[in-house]
Amino acid sequence: MVGAHYDSVTGCPGANDNASAVAALLVLAGEMKGFEPARTVRFVAFPNEEPPFFQTDQMGSRVYAKRCRARGERVVAMLSLETIGYYSNDKGSQHY
After folding, report:
1. On the chain, which terminus has fewer CB atoms closer than 10 Å, C or N?
2. Residue-by-residue pLDDT tens, the chain, 96 positions
């Protein structure tokens, strides 16, 4: 499983946390088109990963994990993409 969340923490540019990871998730999913891996690969975008939902039963990844368990699915790995891009208005910062 490859995952990223699409909500943002208050006071942080959404491009940092976590739109950059969602963009990478979509690119990775597109790159996998036509590839037939030996195991199932899922690309999952989670909601509710930031306060006030963080570490609660409403947190998106927790809801998803509980549903996988209830269905008897065997998830063997999860790669979490998180804040892989950065934007700043600070003097001297580089923009890519």
Report:
1. C
2. 999 999 988 877 787 788 999 999 999 999 999 999 999 999 999 999 999 999 999 999 999 999 999 999 999 999 999 988 877 777 766 654
